[in-house]
Amino acid sequence: MKERRTVYEIYWEILLYCKTPRLSTQIVQRCDLNSKTCQGYLDFLLSKGYLRSVTESSVITYETTAKAQDYLGMFGSMYQELYGVPLQFRIKSTH
Amino acid sequence: MMSRVDLEGTAVRVAREVRYLKALVLINLVYGVVAFGISISAIVTAVAPVFSMNLSALPSILAPQSLLTIAFAAVILALAARWFSHSAEMFDAVDDLGKARDRMVTSRDEEGPAENVVGMIVELLSYYRQHRESIRAFRTLGKVSGLMFIGLGSLGLLQAILVSPANVAQAILGLAATLPPGLAGIYISYSLGKYQDTWDPRLIAASEAEEELRKLLDRP
Fold it and tell me: A87 in contact with B at a CB cutoff of 8 Å?
């Protein structure tokens, strides 16, 4: 299978989605992952303190922490910079 | 962090690029269908006598020149089939991008406008990563096949002028028929070149951004 998203993009999607507490099945579905790889990403983000897990009535939900704001902010500004004015795709001249 | 005006400007550029990309991929798909049709027509014309069970035509079909023509047409057919299937795949994906663009423009969900724009940029980057090799191949094949179409029509006209002037009108019609797909092939190649020239630096910039993100993630 061809490479589609990088791990950093997947982390960003997970962290953004988990601003509201989510079940792992919801994350799998929303971020288009399989459950095994998703668990790997969740474990990594938990280990970095970017996510926290909350267990309530034996149901585990994941929520983005304040620490992840640095990552989300940096990712967002760097990706928006990719669309800087000098680089524009146009197939005709329009102003 | 980007200002509201910058964000709106980025959103407009993203939406516009998706629109252009969709148009380009559609032209590419139509071109693939035309090339596929022409190839099938050429092969059928070449091998039709076999299916008509006219055994007297067999020696002429088995002549090296005919076999070469059939082999050439078969190669073109295989390339056209690949072109068609890859463009259909690209069109399907770009259709999803169009839907994502519409969501970005009209979204009022819990994720903010900046996040929607960044999400769209991530989608576009993913699209380019996934189809980069196909785009490169389309760029080359578009130019080659476009020149071949124009060359074929021009050759017919030249031959008519030099050998049988009575057929010039027919040859002009032939050129008129091969000129549009020829120009379309060259246009596709040129436009995909512009697309690549825009996205290759973005991909490099994204890799550099990833390095910064990796450093951030490595912090204790």
Answer: yes
User: What global pTM score does this model have?
Assistant: 0.79
Q: A54 touching B, CB under 8 A?
A: no
Per residue in A40-51, pLDDT (tens digit) is 999 999 999 999
In the numeric block, which tokens belong to residue B79? 């390339």
Lateral strand order in the sheet of A22-23:
A22-23, A59-64, A51-56
Q: Is the ipTM of this complex over 0.90?
A: no
Q: Does residue A87 fall inside a structural domain? A: no
Judged on CB neighbours under 10 Å (0-12, 13-18, 19+), A34 is: exposed
- CATH code of the domain covering residue A42: 1.10.10.10
Give the number of domains in chain A: 1
Q: Which of A13, A9, A68, A45 has the alpha carbon at shortest distance from B206?
A: A9
B42 close to B72: Cβ distance less than 8 angstroms: no
User: Which residues of A fall within a CB distance of 8 Å from B115?
Assistant: 16, 76
Short-list B134, B140, B148, CA closest to B188: B140
